[in-house]
Design a protein that fits this description.
With about 130 residues, the chain is an alpha/beta fold. The chain contains five helices and five strands, in the order βαβαβαβαβα. The structure holds manganese (II) ion.
Length: about 130
């Protein structure tokens, strides 16, 4: 079974790049471009994992995480927070808001992949033998 990863990112270039790289790796992807869309789409599509930019229009990433973790249908979806802010407090705030892990931008794809795989059940991970140009 292929895991579906939802990318929540308001920067179109970053979003498209991440979608492409994850799809090339073998994951299914879907996306949201702001916080409200993220909440609606997460409930509608029930992805296996969410990559969540913290700095988002409409509703910020911390609030998105709090709302998804408060809903029974989305509470168990692992969330990896992504932020460009190299602030020490961001990680703690993201975890306090319910995020399961955290990574910083600019994205180092291999590092992010290992965090993604660390959050997915082994049956949903892409095998390490899968071809990857990354
Ligand atoms: Mn952003």
């Amino acid at each position: 079974m292929t895991a579906k990863i939802m990318i929540v990112e308001d920067n179109e270039m970053n979003r498209d790049m991440l979608c492409r790289r994850l799809e090339r790796r073998g994951y299914e992807t879907c996306f949201a471009a702001d916080g409200l869309q993220a909440i609606e789409q997460a409930k509608a599509l029930l992805p296996d994992l969410i990559l969540l930019d913290l700095s988002l229009p409409e509703v910020d990433g911390w609030e998105v995480a709090r709302r998804l973790k408060a809903e029974s249908c989305t509470a168990r979806i692992p969330i990896i927070a992504l932020t460009a802010h190299a602030m020490a407090g961001d990680r703690d705030e993201a975890i306090a808001a319910g995020c399961n892990d955290y990574d910083t931008k600019p994205i180092e794809f291999q590092r992010l992949l290992s965090k993604i795989e660390g959050q997915l059940p082994s049956s949903e991970r892409i095998s390490p033998a899968a071809p990857s140009a990354d």
